[in-house]
Amino acid sequence: MSNAFYRQLISALAFLISFSCTTIAATPPPETDIFKAHKARAEAGEADAQMMIGASYFSGIGIPEDSQLGISWLTKAADQGQPKALGMLGLIYLNGEGVARDASKGVSFLKRAAERGNVEAQAHLGLCLKKGEGVEQDLAQAVFWYRKSANQGYAMAQNNLGVCYEQGAGVEKNMPEAVKWWRQAAENGWAESQLNLATCCYKGQGTPRDLAQAVFWFNKAAEQGHPRGQHSLGLCYMKGEGVTVSKEKAFFWLQKASDQGLDVSNFVMGYMLIADDGVVRNPIKAYAYFKISEETVPQSRINVGRLEAEMSPADIAKGKEHALKLQKQIAEKIAAKKARR
To answer: Given 2, 84, 265, 317, which residue has the most CB atoms within 10 angstroms?
Structure first.
């Protein structure tokens, strides 16, 4: 899991905490008053309040961020066995954010949280066991903890359990069972599972082939910004599989995937621009798309050579200039997306 995911998870908990209040009133008290009330309870030794204050300080939700103070309060709560605090500390040590990275210590916290029923910790413990991160790899135990979490509706665990059934990792390989768990995760909004389920519907793996359902789930993943979902949806519109052919929509979704650095989408757009197949032919732009993807897509490199044999030196120069412009735009969009995390 990425650094962004760890911080988003803790921030989400703190966001929920900032709106929690035990007082029933027509008009909720100001957030500052809620925070002060929680802090007083934390200072009195209440573990749940210590967890809330710790998460708020660590993430900077509603108050200035202070990761060290946040970790201090989370540790106080964890010392009393508070499950969410144990889970958050596990992620913090695994990620090395605000502390020296210590995967073994992180796993120790996650295990204590998982044993107390924390679904996030169960899922992340499963991930560590599957990867052998901070603990000896144990696929059967990974499946055990994924299932604990998945059965409580946690989408990440449902997705990862599906992957285990797909791979035969810790369980017998079973594609219908993989599809079952991916469907649950997809319905819970997990983009990777939406893509996996769509791919199975498209290929007829573990479930009857259903192109309309494939498009439905590709679209769900694409709308959440999954580049492979966007690429696959673009291909469906290009080929008219499960939808009416629309080169305009195909190009739209392929461009979305390209904006996230998916080179195979650049290749397909380049192909569309020279194929004279419902898109205005533009060899210069096609050359640019092939050029920016030639290092990772062998067919793009071949097409660059073919176009250079046909184009004038002036048009080749224009194509190279456009390629540089595209690369800059893609880099800026990727950087902006990372900054938003």
So the answer is: 265
